[in-house]
Amino acid sequence: MVRQFAITLILALALSGTAFAKEEAKINDAQIAHIAYTAGQIDVAAGKQALAKSKDATVRSFAEEMVRDHTAVNDKALALVKKLGVTPEANPTSTALSNAAAKKLMDLDKLNGAAFDRAYIENEVAYHKTVNGALSTTLIPNAKNGELKQLLETGLKLFQEHQQHAEHLVAAFH
């Protein structure tokens, strides 16, 4: 299940990244903002699901960190787009992300106990790898506004730390 979600997400981002590379002028800051915000919301939802399902203190602490940090970054993103007078624009990538995440949440909801904890943490590793890759190869390079680019770069550093934290937790579960 985790691999299926990761593959879906990677394909969505890769396909959109290919389209961005071919038609770079077609991706704009409003679309980038929507993709980044959507990715953050997905991890907030996953963290909330983990808080509702997990009894493991380590998993719960990690989930609280995901909810707190991704909410904070999304709040900054919303403040920035408001300041700039930009309305985030839905696009095929943000839609694909949302659809894949909804399926993943349903899959995770079927699990309980250690099986849920392990699948949640493994998914967090895969998700952060994919999002971090998209940030560094597609979203940041294509952002035109300096403030948006800076926010994305700050988010990338934080999300790389999340990935490392999740990788450490996966190792503890095996």
What does this structure look like?
This protein is mainly α and 174 residues long. It has a single domain (2-173), classed as Ferritin, core subunit, four-helix bundle (Ferritin, Up-down Bundle). It is built from 6 helices and no strands. The longest helix has 30 residues, at 113-142.
Notable traits:
0% strand; 174 residues; mainly alpha; 6 helices; Ferritin; single chain; disordered N terminus
How would the blueprint of this fold be written?
Blueprint: H1 2-22, H2 29-53, H3 57-84, H4 92-109, H5 113-142, H6 146-173
Helix pairs in contact: 1-4, 1-5, 2-3, 2-4, 2-5, 3-6, 5-6
Number of helical regions: 6
**CATH topology call:** Ferritin
CATH class: Mainly Alpha
Show unreliable segments: 1-11, 14-25
Please give the domain count. Answer: 1
- Using the 3D structure, state the CATH architecture: Up-down Bundle
Specify the overall morphology: elongated
The biggest beta sheet reads:
none
Radius of gyration: 16 Å
Helix percent reads: over 70%
Q: What percentage of amino acids are in beta strands?
A: under 5%
Distance between the termini: 17 Å
Helix/strand order: HHHHHH
Task: Give me a quick take on this structure.
This protein has 174 residues and is an all-alpha fold.
